[in-house]
Amino acid sequence: MRLILCYLILLYSGNLFAQFAIINDNDGFANIRSEARKGNNISDKLDNGFLVYGFQPEDNWIGIDYTKNNKDLGGYVYKDRIKFLSEFTKIPLSKETAAKVTFKKDNFNIVTESKKFDPKTAKITYSKDKSYIQKINGKEIWGADGNTPKIAYKSITVVMGDKTIEVPASAFDDLFEPNFFSTQINYNKKEDILYICSSNSDGAGGYEVVWVIENGKYKERKTARGF
């Protein structure tokens, strides 16, 4: 019990500032800089709504990681040029069991389920010396840190009014060891975008994930190694 409590404290403290955010600038885009200062150091430009992973502020700057054109990139953005997903309307937890959580608010009903990982039903690729797992079903894995996963996602179902959206299995079949207690759901009413976020880990292979539902359709998933 003490180990679990310590893990929760570390997880929470490590994510006080580290979390997903979107670019949110009056100009419609934000300059990304290679250093936490103004000058001849603009490395990129990101449009409003672009998902980034923001870390602890350094004075007036926030370090970010993001993926663009299938490349993992990083830089700094001025602190008032982004908006953290946690600032949007929260969809609260309604019911929780070991393998299923339900979130409800107004016309929203979001259900996330997990299942035991069955290695007999998966194609597992090991390292040359057989000491760790490299891939499962041809994909690099998140959350297992080279070990055989114990828990996998089973389904993510979103009901918005009369619309039911099933997040495709391809958006979570490489993600393991989900921590339902850390799942947070926020809704951007102005843009009609739902964000489903979670901090997951087996104790070593920690990662952050966010699924995006936009205008009643599944749009994308982003992952980050936040802790």
TrEMBL record:
Taxonomic lineage of the native organism: Bacteria, Pseudomonadati, Bacteroidota, Flavobacteriia, Flavobacteriales
Signal peptide boundaries: 1-18
Protein name (record): SH3b domain-containing protein
Record key words, sorted: Signal
